[in-house]
Structure to design on (459 residues):
């Protein structure tokens, strides 16, 4: 330990991977890093599945994908059959195949992981979804939209899952999204090198093909209220707005110029990359020394994005490497790309000159205090729900953290009848697939609720 900086060694990386990363970073810093499998590679990998009697991979998947089922179909070259099995559980397979924490879930539970050689489930799910889209193998048979009319607020993972699931079983679904383009955190919060925008657009297009209508540039709580949505004849409303309000640090200097939220930074980069704002509105200059406070996956995303824009980045984290929330793979890739780490370093004050941040005063692991020079600080210590909807709607209760309170029966209903919620707006921020898991359960509950209300009305 020197000046609070823990010296870290990289694992031995395959030369082919290092060369691929270097090439992509030079040609296009935001190019997707993980390359697709070829058909032969995918089939060969699927053949490695042992088709266990008690598949642990399924237990490790939050939405309980029939992983052995779609791997068996793929192993025989039947990509269409594999896609049909995947569609039974997921409306976003190309997304999940890229951003799910497979090392903790399906692959982490694979029996072959005991030998450190788990089936590459994520890459195979991604291959199947990509191949299906490119070849247009599967075309869903649409059911008449006769069961009812559902409004979905927010088009992140939870909202898209509810919209897709309900459209498949005969509901007319309209999604209300405040930004110019649907996708929520998938579009504006996850960097392109992990999840290309065209992949998100492609998945949304599949959901549109189910008959779902997307109403963008419409902030519920500002442009329209929940009560006004009900007045348009909707039978139920689903809130899936996530946690769009980032948590701040209550320390001196937090209001200095150059101290900003990592989520805000990522959104600005995404908007600039899509041409929605000028590049000079991205809050970063090449060559700046940048601190990212926090060590979750958002912190890794912000750090690796800042490196791609020419920043000299250090992640400052108050705890040890062993307990940081970020995935091990994200951490290792950040190291490879040049991100430095300072563990057991507690930020106490942001120092500045002429209103601009210049340094962090911090306690180090050895008990000493240091002034660490930085020109910009990105805060990534978590997020919480915004109150735009609940503050303009009566009858929806929230807990002390601002999270929407829901019931067990009907599952996912708020304290106001006919309004449901799931995903990060109900639970503390989690992963895409965990939001999808809850959303799928709530979608089924919405369908049962609307059916019951209509049956009672007919009686």
């Amino acid at each position: 330990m020197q000046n609070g900086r823990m010296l870290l060694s990289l694992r031995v990386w395959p030369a082919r991977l290092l060369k691929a990363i270097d090439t992509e970073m030079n040609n296009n810093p935001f190019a997707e890093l993980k390359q697709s499998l070829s058909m032969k590679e995918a089939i060969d990998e699927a053949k490695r599945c042992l088709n266990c009697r008690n598949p642990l991979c399924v237990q490790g998947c939050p939405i309980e994908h029939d992983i052995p089922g779609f791997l068996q179909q793929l192993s025989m070259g039947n990509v269409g059959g594999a896609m049909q099995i995947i569609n039974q559980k997921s409306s976003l397979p190309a997304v999940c195949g890229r951003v799910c924490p497979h090392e903790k879930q399906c692959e982490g539970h694979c029996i072959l992981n005991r030998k450190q050689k788990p089936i590459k489930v994520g890459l195979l799910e991604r291959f199947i979804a990509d191949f299906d889209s490119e070849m247009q193998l599967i075309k869903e048979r649409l059911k008449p939209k006769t069961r009812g009319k559902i409004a979905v607020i927010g088009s992140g993972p939870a909202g898209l899952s509810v919209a897709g699931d309900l459209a498949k079983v005969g509901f007319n679904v309209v999604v209300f999204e405040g930004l110019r383009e649907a996708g929520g955190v998938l579009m504006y919060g996850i960097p392109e090198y992990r999840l290309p925008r065209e992949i998100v657009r492609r998945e949304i297009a599949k959901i549109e093909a189910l008959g779902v209508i997307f109403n963008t540039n419409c902030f519920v709580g500002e442009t329209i209220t929940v009560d006004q949505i009900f007045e348009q004849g909707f039978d139920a409303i689903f809130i899936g707005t996530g946690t769009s309000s980032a948590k701040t640090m209550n320390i001196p200097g937090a209001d200095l110029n150059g101290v900003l939220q990592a989520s805000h930074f990522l959104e600005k980069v995404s908007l600039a990359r899509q041409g929605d704002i000028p590049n000079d509105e991205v809050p970063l200059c090449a060559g700046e020394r940048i601190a990212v406070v926090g060590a979750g996956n958002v912190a890794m995303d912000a750090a690796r994005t800042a490196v791609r824009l020419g920043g000299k980045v250090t992640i400052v984290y108050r705890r040890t490497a062993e307990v940081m929330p970020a995935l091990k793979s994200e951490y290792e890739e950040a190291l490879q790309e040049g991100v430095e780490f300072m563990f057991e370093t507690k930020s106490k004050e942001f120092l500045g000159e002429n209103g601009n941040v210049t340094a962090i005063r911090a306690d180090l692991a050895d008990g000493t205090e240091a002034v660490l020079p930085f020109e910009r600080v990105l805060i990534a210590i978590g997020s919480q729900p915004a109150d735009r909807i609940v503050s303009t709607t009566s009858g929806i209760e929230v807990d002390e953290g601002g999270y929407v309170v829901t019931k067990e029966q009907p599952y996912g209903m708020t304290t106001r009848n006919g309004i449901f919620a799931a995903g990060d707006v109900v639970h503390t921020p989690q992963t895409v697939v965990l939001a999808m898991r809850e959303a799928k359960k709530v979608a089924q509950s919405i369908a049962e609720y609307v059916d019951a209300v209509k049956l009672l009305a007919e009686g």
About this structure: The first strand starts at residue 148 and ends at 153. Confidence is low (pLDDT under 50) at residues 1-21. The first helix runs from residue 15 to 27.
